[in-house]
Write a structure and sequence with these properties.
By secondary structure, the chain is an alpha+beta fold. It contains 2 helices and 4 strands; from the N terminus they run ββαβαβ. It has a 4-stranded antiparallel beta sheet, covered by helices on one side. The two termini are about 20 Å apart.
Length: about 80
């Protein structure tokens, strides 16, 4: 599964994962407003053996399939907003 990762301007260390570059159609408008301007930082293939620094790749893939995005918040920020 392909994945594109964006850094949020208004929420330091928050990253939004989506399936297709610049396709935010499945991301709630309220979340996009909360995050502010998004800057693409990486595109990668999420495979079964792929490791991510701050997220569980299986959870990311599941979230992308079910809701079209995955929001990674800093570990000290509490619960992830999904």
């Amino acid at each position: 599964m392909k994945c594109v990762i964006y850094r949020a301007e208004r929420k330091p260390d928050a990253y939004l994962y989506i399936e297709r570059e610049d396709d935010f159609s499945r991301v709630p408008e309220a979340l996009l407003k909360l995050l502010g301007r998004l800057e693409q930082v990486m595109a990668l293939e999420l495979t079964a053996d792929r490791r991510l620094a701050q997220a569980d790749p299986q959870q990311v893939r599941l979230s992308l399939q079910q809701q079209g995005y995955y929001l990674q918040m800093p570990p000290n920020d509490g619960a992830t907003l999904q």
